[in-house]
Amino acid sequence: MLAAAIPTVALTACSSNDEPDAPAPDDTADGKYVFATTANGSSGTSYVLLTGESLDEGELTTVGNGLINEGATQWVFYKNYLYALTYNQGNAGTTRSYILDNNGNMEARSIEYNISRFSSYGAYDDDIITMSTGSGPASFADSHGYLPMTLLITYLDVENETKRSNDTSTGLYSMENFLGNGEYVTLSGAEQSGKRLFCGAIPMGLSQYGAAADNGKWIRPGFEHLVHDEAGGTGGGSYKAGELAGTQYPDECWVAIYDNADMLNPTLAKTDRISTPCGRFRSQYYQTIWAAENGDIYVFSASYAKTMTDPLQKTTLPAGVCRIPAGSTTFDDYYCNIEEQTPGGNRSFMRCWPAGGNNFLMVMYDRSLTEKNPAATELAIFNATSKKLTYVTGLPSNVSSIGKTVYAQDGKVYIPVNVENEHPAIYAINTSTAKAEKGVSINAVDITGFGYMTPQK
Fold this sequence. Notes:
The chain is mainly beta and about 450 residues long. Strands 3, 28, 29, 30, 31 and 32 form a six-stranded mixed beta sheet that branches. The longest helix has 5 residues, at about 210. The radius of gyration is 21 Å and the shape is globular. The chain is built from one helix and 33 strands.
């Protein structure tokens, strides 16, 4: 939908990013910061895992250092393991994991395996969870041969280095009519709070299966022209003949709340004050549902439905945030219009992460989503208590892109910043003042992930 790089997000330290409860740095454990980097050399592009002692100072180089690897779509640090999740255009992707050995060096673990395509991910207890919505088993085809859209899950047990998938043969994982309006959904993110798992439920419109049901029962009057006569589109924007691609209800936000990692029989929470709870680029859906340190669940919407072509599918709602209080399964009356606090009052964000306490770090666009080629090259701190958005100062003027992971501790949140004609660096942002200071720089093309690891004894 927008020209922005696919982020790779990692769990690190005291506040969670894409996964909960990472260990805080322990100076007695001989831990190290680990940086996933991309480097250019005489033989071409290479991917290198580097280790370092500090985020706040120094310079590291990929030349003659680190562990060469095959790269990843998503680098995920979780429970002292580093997972390289790979997304390969809808096909299975090769995944493996890494540890920090007793000598402080990165080491690839022995098992390498394929995972199903994924459009989002998260974690629950010992598992990293990847998710997508795809065609269900042939046994559930309708009279036209159309297959219901089904939730496809892969569980990666980080301790035992195993994987398993959900059983779709029972039909219990059907995502058709998930919200009671005939549309199917995909899930964005998986945020654990206590034993519950909170996922953004993103309505995708009517599949062939849903559009044909009961002679078009679920097609809203006046929306008939949105049903495609033939297949078309590419990548995440592709569609089939007979589909109604894109939701007919753009001014709604839904959250699926599961009691456990089985991801069955969710409780659905709804608000009409914000739009869909996700960020998006092509077929990837970025988590925007996060637990604050007190357990409250903050649900952010970037209002990406503003970019839809047909006016009936455009949201009228600005980018904003609502809340599900700790222990609850419904939204309370908390609301903040984030968009109106941006320059011009019309800008949105690409990503957001917890930054400690009730603070969140947001990657902001430099113009409205409805303008041509918005660039996500600015940062802001959102304080959920005061409902105040403060733009970060102290960043270099030649920023080419903002990094893809965050790390929060001691009142600071760290993120990679890539700049034109210079080496990328980690910047530390004071969440109270929103001021950034340059930390460790790396002689590389970019930093695609970073986190903190302690050796496996």
